[in-house]
């Protein structure tokens, strides 16, 4: 929530960059999307506390090592809160399905793994910064295996795609918005006490 903007506003930005190398963006018919670093810089300049999420596609036909490295470097340098990455899959009837330079499945898998390994470290570092802080948590459900524990979300955790906040304490129930102290962080999740 940001005060002074006239109404509640959460600085959570989901910007699907898909790729960052100009050659790959041109192959995807997205040549104007090459300004990913500029977009991140502008968002952070205006909203320093912003949480950014993006998704990327690796293994597009013609994607070489340097094209992939540009995505990996971008992920490492920009330190987004949340990143999703998907291997390209040829869809029958699409132009890309018959393009030259199809990338082997094992190469695509290694590229996905490399980006997610980098993102795990980034996410863990970002979440560690919330430890000791009080945050509002929207409680979604009772944890299915641990009595007294609930699953919820802080403002930068979108449902079903980002991590969660595990929370317990008085007044914690599905549908409640509780103020909780972040006690612990994991790679993608937080643990809090209300």
Commentary on this structure:
- The structure is a single chain.
- With 194 residues, the protein is an alpha/beta fold.
- The protein is 28% helix and 24% strand.
- The chain contains 4 helices and 8 strands, in the order E-H-H-E-H-E-H-E-E-E-E-E.
- Strands 4-5-6-8-7 form a 5-stranded mixed beta barrel.
- Strand 7 and strand 8 (190-193) form a beta hairpin.
- Helix 3 runs parallel beside helix 4 (105-128).
- The longest helix has 24 residues, at 105-128.
- The chain starts with 11 loop residues before the first strand and ends with a strand.
- 29% of the residues are buried.
- Residues 1-6 have low confidence and may be disordered.
Provide key terms for this protein.
194 residues, alpha/beta, 3-stranded parallel beta sheet, 8 strands
Q: What would you say about this model in short?
A:
The chain has about 190 residues and is α/β, with parallel strands linked by helices.
Number of alpha- plus pi-helical segments: 4
**Overall 3D shape:** elongated
Radius of gyration: 19 Å
Structural class: alpha/beta
Assign a percent range to the helix content: 25-40%
Strand content: 15-25%
Q: Provide the succession of SSEs.
A: EHHEHEHEEEEE
The biggest sheet amounts to:
5 strands, mixed, barrel
Describe the strand arrangement of the main beta sheet, using strand numbers.
4-5-6-8-7
| Average pLDDT number | 92
Low-pLDDT runs of 5+ residues are: 1-6
């Amino acid at each position: 929530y940001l005060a002074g903007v006239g109404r509640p506003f959460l600085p959570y930005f989901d910007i699907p960059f898909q790729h960052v190398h100009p050659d790959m963006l041109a192959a995807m018919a997205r040549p104007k999307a090459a300004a990913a670093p500029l977009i991140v810089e502008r968002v952070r300049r205006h909203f320093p506390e912003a949480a950014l999420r993006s998704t990327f596609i690796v293994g597009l036909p013609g994607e070489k090592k340097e094209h992939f490295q540009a995505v990996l470097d971008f992920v490492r340098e920009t330190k987004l809160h949340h990143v999703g990455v998907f291997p390209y899959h040829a869809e029958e009837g699409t132009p890309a399905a018959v393009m030259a330079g199809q990338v082997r499945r094992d190469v695509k898998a290694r590229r996905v793994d490399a980006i997610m390994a980098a993102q795990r470290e980034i996410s863990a570092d970002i979440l560690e910064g919330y430890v000791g802080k009080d945050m509002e948590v929207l409680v979604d459900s009772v944890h299915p295996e641990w009595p007294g524990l609930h699953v919820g979300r802080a403002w930068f955790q979108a449902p079903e795609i980002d991590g969660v906040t595990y929370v317990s304490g008085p007044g914690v129930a599905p549908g409640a918005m509780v103020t909780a102290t972040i006690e612990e962080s994991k790679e993608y999740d937080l643990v809090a006490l209300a």
